[in-house]
């Protein structure tokens, strides 16, 4: 389990939730989130280069456009589940990384 603020990613089960809200991600979206989560766990400050994500998703073919669509869709789903927070940062020329957010105070 990788925890980034109020984002919880179970890398074994390939599931994720923000707070108590489960994210309904497509299989490739879950793979992207797991790649970003594992990288965050190893080194939170370092982004994952786009090419690395593409090679892990599509080892035999290019998927640049598909990755852009996955990232966009994931951001939308995560904003809806979190009340507007952005969980995926783009570091231009470097790649993507998970953004840290402090969890809201206990209810």
How would you summarize what this structure contains?
The chain has 107 residues and is an alpha+beta fold. The protein has helices spanning 27-42, 50-57, 64-82; strands spanning 2-4, 7-10, 15-18, 21-22, 88-91, 95-98.
Topology overview:
Elements: E1 2-4, E2 7-10, E3 15-18, E4 21-22, H1 27-42, H2 50-57, H3 64-82, E5 88-91, E6 95-98
Antiparallel strand pairs: 1-2, 2-3, 3-4, 5-6
CATH homology group:
Winged helix-like DNA-binding domain superfamily/Winged helix DNA-binding domain
Task: Tell the overall outline.
Answer: globular
Helix content: 40-55%
The N- to C-terminal Cα distance equals 23 Å
What order do the helices and strands follow? EEEEHHHEE
Strand fraction equals 15-25%
What's the Cα radius of gyration? Answer: 13 Å
| Name of the CATH class | Mainly Alpha
Roughly what is the average pLDDT, rounded to an integer? 86
Tell me the domain tally.
1
Provide the CATH topology: Arc Repressor Mutant, subunit A
* CATH architectural grouping: Orthogonal Bundle
**Helices and strands: which structural class?**
alpha+beta
Uncertain stretches: 103-107
**Multimeric state:** single chain
Can you give a write-up of this model?
Helices cover 40% and strands 20% of the residues. It has three helices and six strands, in the order E-E-E-E-H-H-H-E-E. Helix 1 crosses helix 3 (64-82). The two termini are 23 Å apart.
Sum up the structure in keywords.
single chain, disordered C terminus, two-stranded antiparallel ribbon, 107 residues, alpha+beta, Arc Repressor Mutant, subunit A, globular, 40% helix, 20% strand, 4-stranded antiparallel β-sheet
């Amino acid at each position: 389990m990788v925890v980034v603020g109020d984002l919880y990613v179970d890398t074994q089960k390939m599931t994720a939730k923000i707070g108590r809200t489960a994210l309904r991600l497509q299989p490739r979206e879950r793979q992207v989130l797991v790649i970003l989560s594992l990288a965050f766990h190893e080194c939170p400050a370092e982004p994952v280069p786009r090419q690395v994500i593409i090679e892990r998703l599509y080892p035999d073919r290019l998927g640049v456009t598909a990755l852009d669509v996955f990232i966009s869709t994931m951001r939308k789903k995560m904003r809806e589940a979190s009340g507007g927070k952005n969980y995926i940062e783009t570091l231009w020329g470097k790649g993507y990384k998970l953004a840290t957010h402090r969890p809201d105070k206990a209810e």
